[in-house]
Amino acid sequence: MAEPARGQPAAAEQPPFPRTGRRVLVSGASRGLGRAVAQVFADNGDQVAVHYGSRREEAGATLAALSGGGHVLLQADLSDPAQAAELVAAAEAALGGVDVLVNNAAVNTPHPPADTGFADWVDGWQRHVEVNLLGTAHLSHQAARRMVARGSGGRIVNIGSRGAFRGEPDHPAYAATKAAVHALGQSLAVALAPHRIAVSSVAPGFIDTDRVAHRLVGAEGEAIRAQSPYGRVAEPEEIAAAVLWLASPEAEWSSGTVLDLNGASYLRT
Q1: Is 174 tagged catalytic?
Q2: Sign of the C-alpha dihedral, residues 122, 123, 128, 134?
Q3: What is the mean pLDDT of residues 258-267?
Q4: Residue 51's closest CA among 86, 97, 99, 96?
Q5: What are the angstrom distances between the C-alpha of 154 and each of 96, 151, 252?
Q6: End-to-end distance of the chain based on CA atoms, in angstroms?
Q7: Which one from 52, 174, 230, 266 is the annotated catalytic residue?
Q8: What is the largest CA-CA distance in the chain?
């Protein structure tokens, strides 16, 4: 190794970011995409903290299906900042640290402006902001502070949405909060890069999950699949594979990216 220039301090050695055996917190992992993300990390040899808000039974099924050992089930209402902070602390205590945070938890209830009364409109917006945006921000802050203190780097991957770019007429608060999540991720990417913490986001299109299975039948299902030239929608495992890569050591230079995962159903310029 070359000696440092005279008068210049030697650069501090940074421990490598591991490929496996990491401690991973996945929010909103009781079913759907969150479950697939938890599974792909477990299959990679990582330990996973499976978070859920209210779906205890489904979250338990996620935990039971994970390969390997050392996984843990944790509950928190992410609309409450104190519970968000407690979730990260609990994951750190249970796993011995948090190397990777995947911000997947979100609410998405319809509230078309022409058909929604003002009280329901206000409630819907508050709930979306509290969970989708502020919950993500609070978890990211608490995880990042611990990663910085440990000094070994880390990864934060946010689950955004295609709707942040193309609009969601029946779910405007969902689209708006996901756009904010993309912006948050890019701000954190710049702020945390000196600490070797890479932050990125994925922007999926329609995903075939239990929550939306009823929309994939009949004429509506045909129209949704026709949005992509592949004539189908994504499988949760396809999105989870991208999340796993963004959390890898090799993906550090992708920090700040918003990765479109929509089967060419919407092309940004």
Answers
A1: yes
A2: positive
A3: 98
A4: 86
A5: 14, 9, 9
A6: 45
A7: 174
A8: 73
Look at the block and give the residue holding tokens 């440990």.
150
70: left (phi over 0), alpha (psi -120 to 50) or beta: left
Element (H, E) at 219: helix 218-226
The amino acid at residue 167 is G
| CA dist., res. 44 & res. 39, Å (int) | 9
Distance CA 242, CA 89 (A): 27
Residue 28 contacts residue 21 (beta carbons within 8 Å): no
Provide φ and ψ at 20, rounded to 5°.
-135, 175
Instruction: Specify the length of the chain in residues.
Output: 269
Q: How far apart are CA 167 and CA 179, in angstroms?
A: 10
Q: Which residues contact 112 (CB under 8 A, 6 or more apart)?
A: 169, 170
Number of H helices, E strands in the chain: 9, 7
The 10s digit of each residue's pLDDT in 48-104 is: 999 999 999 999 999 999 999 999 999 999 999 999 999 999 999 999 999 999 999
Closest CA to 192 of 245, 158, 155: 155
Q: Give the count of beta carbons closer than 10 Å to the beta carbon of residue 210.
A: 11
Sign of the CA dihedral 136, 254, 238, 45? negative
Residue 204 sits at the vertex; the CA angle it makes with 198 and 206, to the nearest 5 degrees, is 165
CB-based contacts of 263, cutoff 8 Å, min separation 6: 205, 228, 229, 230, 232, 233, 234
DSSP 18: P
Retrieve residue 180's tokens. 């904010």
- Digit-coded pLDDT (tens) for 189-233: 999 999 999 999 999 999 999 888 889 999 999 999 999 999 999
Which residue type, as a one-letter code, is found at position 16?
P
Q: What pLDDT band is residue 9 in, cutting at 50, 70 and 90?
A: very low
Tell me the average pLDDT of the chain.
94
